């Protein structure tokens, strides 16, 4: 994956978006590592809040971290919520004066999230629905 990101920069991309899901007891303790990774790089690291879908309710209960918790932590550390840009999609984007990279939070449980979503999910059986409807 890292080689692919480097190849994107070598090909002339000015910014790369990387999606990940922050999960309690899996990778939430690595927030500082994630932040250090984007400090010198023009990467928008997008944390997608874990969603309760289908038969995954036990996984959700065990590992879900509210996007609000992460947003509050970023604000506490001096990150600034940016005005929404068209290229942000469903993410709330944050920047910090000491970082080249940005953080995007995709929080499906946030008020009016679905009203601004422009994503589509296609299932293996070729059915389509809004991305976060299961």
From TrEMBL:
<keyword id="KW-0456">Lyase</keyword>
<dbReference type="InterPro" id="IPR013785">
    <property type="entry name" value="Aldolase_TIM"/>
</dbReference>
<dbReference type="GO" id="GO:0061798">
    <property type="term" value="F:GTP 3',8'-cyclase activity"/>
</dbReference>
<dbReference type="GO" id="GO:0006777">
    <property type="term" value="P:Mo-molybdopterin cofactor biosynthetic process"/>
</dbReference>
<feature type="domain" description="Molybdenum cofactor biosynthesis protein A-like twitch">
    <location>
        <begin position="43"/>
        <end position="122"/>
    </location>
</feature>
<dbReference type="InterPro" id="IPR058240">
    <property type="entry name" value="rSAM_sf"/>
</dbReference>
<protein>
    <submittedName>
        <fullName>Molybdenum cofactor biosynthesis protein MoaA</fullName>
    </submittedName>
</protein>
<dbReference type="GO" id="GO:0051539">
    <property type="term" value="F:4 iron, 4 sulfur cluster binding"/>
</dbReference>
<keyword id="KW-0501">Molybdenum cofactor biosynthesis</keyword>
<dbReference type="GO" id="GO:0061799">
    <property type="term" value="F:cyclic pyranopterin monophosphate synthase activity"/>
</dbReference>
<dbReference type="Pfam" id="PF06463">
    <property type="entry name" value="Mob_synth_C"/>
</dbReference>
<dbReference type="InterPro" id="IPR050105">
    <property type="entry name" value="MoCo_biosynth_MoaA/MoaC"/>
</dbReference>
<dbReference type="InterPro" id="IPR010505">
    <property type="entry name" value="MoaA_twitch"/>
</dbReference>
